[in-house]
Amino acid sequence: MKLTDGSPQGSLAGSRSATGPGKADVHIHSIASDGTASAAQILDYAENHTDLDLIAIADHERVEGAIECQRLARERGSRVQVVVAEEVTTRSGHLLGVFLQARLKRGQLLETTVAEIHEQGGLAIVPHPFSAFTLGMRKHAIMRVHLSKDPLVYWDALEGYNPSTAGRYGRAATARIAAELGLPLVGNSDAHTVDTIGDGHTLFPGTTAEDYRQAVVAGTTGGSCITWGAVREVLIYGQQVRKQARDVSRWGQRNLLRNDAPRDLGVPTDQLELQREAERCYLLEREARRLSDGSTARPTDRETARGLARRLLAVRQGRARSMAAVRRHEVEEPPA
Q1: Which residues, at least 6 apart from 314, have a Cβ–Cβ distance to it below 8 Å?
Q2: pLDDT greater at residue 249 or residue 221
Q3: pTM over 0.85
């Protein structure tokens, strides 16, 4: 495990090349939760104002913004790669899942959520451990997962470089427990405004998303972050308050005045529907795989499997119709 000195750019930043080290920030919040920028604005900033190679939106209990950011990056052929992440609340505190296929459920046992992240092919990372200001995970919870005998319940990394007060509070303790348990440290910005994206980041060999994954698994990540002062944090919080006021206003319009004012997630309506159909499809396929893995399926299991197959077919057909409708809309839309 190779660590930098914690300076703003890190000891490797000056020697970056086409082969690395890469820079990643996979803990960014959008307006879909308590951030202040849309997925498009986050991608624009990462592309034009940072030298990051990899980003992920990790909203609280949501993945809509993350999936939209990934879609936009692929559509544009962006130089910045995007993966899907989520900061989910477990019974033991916040947990960061990276490389996700579907949203994680809030309020589950820590071990259950860690196992689900790995079932999805993701990485389970502890964000801002020991934080007294957010739901940072405590040592007993970290140790419980570390000592688990379940092959799906283990840590991939700890977030040791986080520029916020929440991250700074437990930075020394995080470094100690990472060394004790032999876990790699990563860096993230925990950004809630675009101008803070990249203020904390991971350095890793290579430049791609898969290079990042392999570096975490191999324990060859470095990290770095700046430290936000009190004034900076107050300014960030002020932007969050204004954004939350807009959310409350839209909630009031929707629930009290009964007019059409849906919550602004920063994702087009047609893309939200496609996202939901894709998630339903993924969850049905996963459940079908679980049933088929059993060596001796009971009759009730076979009936359940048939039902899942029928539902899966219906979801796929619905998704195909939705995508065809979107394409027709794009063709029929007159030029600006």
Answers
A1: none
A2: 221
A3: no
